[in-house]
Amino acid sequence: MEHRNISLFRGYSDTESVETSLEEVVNIIKCDAALRDRTEKHRYYLQQDLRRDADREKSGCSCFAVAVCFEGGKTREHICAWTGYTLVDLDHIAPERMAATLTLICADKHTLMAYTTISGHGIRIICRIDDLNRVEKGKAFRQYAKYFNQVNDYYSCLVGFESDGQCKNATRISGLASDPHVYYNPSAAAFVLQNSPIAPQPQDSASEVVPAKRNKRLEKAVKAAERLLEEEGVSYCEHHHNEYVMRMGYLLNQYGVARKTAAAWAAEHFPDYDGDVAAVIGSCYANTGEHGTRSLVRRGEDDEKFATVADIEQFLSEQAKFRKNTVSGKFEVLMADCGEEYAELTDRYVNTLWSRMNKAGMLARIADIRSVLDSEYTPLFNPFVAYLEGLPAWDGTTDPIARLAAGVHVKDDQKLFSIYFKKWLVATIASLLDTKVVNHEILVFIGKQGIYKTTWMQRLLPVELQRYFYVKSNSRRVSKDDLFTLTEFALVCLEELEEMTSAQVSQLKAITGMTDVNERAAYGHFKESRPHIASFCGTSNNVTFLNDLSGNRRWLPFEVDSIDSPFDYPIDYVGVYAQGYALWKSGFHYWFEQEEIDAVNLHNRYFEVPCLERELVQVYYRRPMPGEECMFLTNAQILGHINIGIRQPLSPTRLGLVMKQEGYEAVRSGGRRGYRVVELKGDEIYRNQCAMARYVGD
């Protein structure tokens, strides 16, 4: 016979296969000591009801792909050829029927290979079919499904009970089990695809029995009853024949099998029973009130009919590619024939997957599909890491970031803007990649409307990442949802900055410094700790918007004359981010030291909202010269003096900050705290005002 390659895997979780032959697979089943050891352990653990240990031994057994050959994996996209084989899986065969069933299977001319499965209660059959390598790829899968159905119907008819229809996937992996009596017939006949089902032919003239029409309800009821009796320790053995037949009769009645059907089945399957089988079954059916009271599919009773985790994983791999976005926390899917762009996984598509799986003959719970998706099966994906690590290396000489900054024409020092912008951008990249880093600086553009301030900010992110740009138009209120934006977006653009009060600015300062967010998401069960990845930027039409007397080191405001249109002058994203990524990796000094912070605070004085307390102190007082006679005034005394004729209330706290910033010496005298000041008289105030007017005029 012709030689056909087989993909053999070392275990169920293995994704790399080795090429071998069916003859070698037969030899492993028959002679391999390690496989024999795992098979014996699996069956022992099953007897002891140690399901987890049994599954561990089973997962370590070698397995092979029956219908296809794989290369580089074991999903549909890794198929490289068809083997010309298909399989039949017979499960939960009663112990007293195993030998007869196996004899019947091995006597059939189509049986290429047959062996007892690892449970000891099943038989796996391998058969030949047509070579599908000559068939168009899309049609080959449909044709294989027809072959599978035909072959499984054939053997179900041959043995008298139903095979496992969940094995119909072409990528199905068949686990090996030790069987010294494995059957192998290299001269077995191949199945030919028929338009109508074919029935098994008798093997000799002495067995010319036409198979009866299958009664699937009877088959399911018998299988369920046999399983229940096995769990209760009731078996058809010597001195227990009557008990077994009666218990079986009661169960068939409860499962809703017709009395005549049950009696005929019992007469055929218990030929060595000494009593009157029909009479016993009839007595079991005397209680008509119990007829049909037991469901054939009950929770916990038919669990093996549901698809396993391996089945679900294999099916999902054939349908699409999945990943979990670690930034958004959502699942994404790349459907077949949809290019290379992932989309957010919706409930509708999950329902579609569930529907397709059940239509394919694999009974699955939608909750199980969701559990598999939200497991190690789905790889994690960080869009920022993927983008930045996929960039070509920076050449180390060009400066794309400086070229980008040059497109923003500021009224202040253009060089200073370029320096601060580079620091801010590298800090933005660092905060996306390092969970311990938070970008504390807020880049702000101030200028008239229509000069691309917000548009340029949004275009800072490359096309692949622009979905992670968020505009917060109401900057005066910070809600719990806003806290989650810190963990889900790369850039948060603040608008209406000039409307923020001191308290709101303080709240904003607090969240810009948060390293993580520990909150419970909507519909979540528990609080989650998520890293703060967002950097802040902002726009304003008003030059004076800073109103925090304690300091404004977090702000990097620049008054903008114009911005080169990002539509006419597209940003070199590859160059900009390759340089920024390289600078971060090389240890670029993107943070601000104290000297730089002082320079930032000095730069920001131009953008501060006029402080009434500061202006009044500058009008009425000055600092004393060394040795000069001066006055000791408390905070309240100063406030009472400068507040004359002022309707707007002044703040003692703000006054204290102003006195400190203006360089007044704070002293304690007579148990009171105050300042050493020189109070200006009316004529001195007048001369100062005239001098300032002349200075402005110059």
How would you describe this structure to a colleague?
- The chain is 40% helix and 17% strand.
- The protein is elongated and about 135 Å long.
- 30% of the residues are buried.
- It has 24 helices and 26 strands.
- It folds into 5 domains: 5-207, no CATH class; 216-290; 306-381, no CATH class; 400-607, Rossmann fold (3-Layer(aba) Sandwich); 612-697, no CATH class.
- A 6-stranded mixed sheet has the order 15-22-16-21-18-17.
- It starts with a strand and ends with a helix.
Quick tags:
4-stranded antiparallel sheet, 6-stranded mixed sheet, 5 domains, 698 residues, alpha+beta, 40% helix
Provide a concise account of the structure shown.
With 698 residues, this protein is an alpha+beta fold. 40% of the residues lie in helices and 17% in strands.
Report the CATH architecture of the largest domain. 3-Layer(aba) Sandwich
| Sequence stretches where pLDDT stays below 50 over 5 or more residues | 203-212, 299-304
Number of strands: 26
| Gross morphology | elongated
- CATH-derived topology of the largest domain: Rossmann fold
* Cross-sheet strand order for the largest sheet: 15-22-16-21-18-17
Measured by DSSP, the beta-strand proportion falls in 15-25%
* Name given to the CATH homologous superfamily of the largest domain: P-loop containing nucleotide triphosphate hydrolases
Query: How many discrete structural domains?
Result: 5
Helix percentage range: 25-40%
Mean pLDDT: 85
CATH class placement of the largest domain:
Alpha Beta
The number of distinct helices, counting runs of at least 4 residues, comes to 24
The whole-angstrom Rg is 40 Å
Main beta sheet? 6 strands, mixed
Rounded to the nearest angstrom, the distance between the terminal CA atoms is 107 Å
SS-based class? alpha+beta
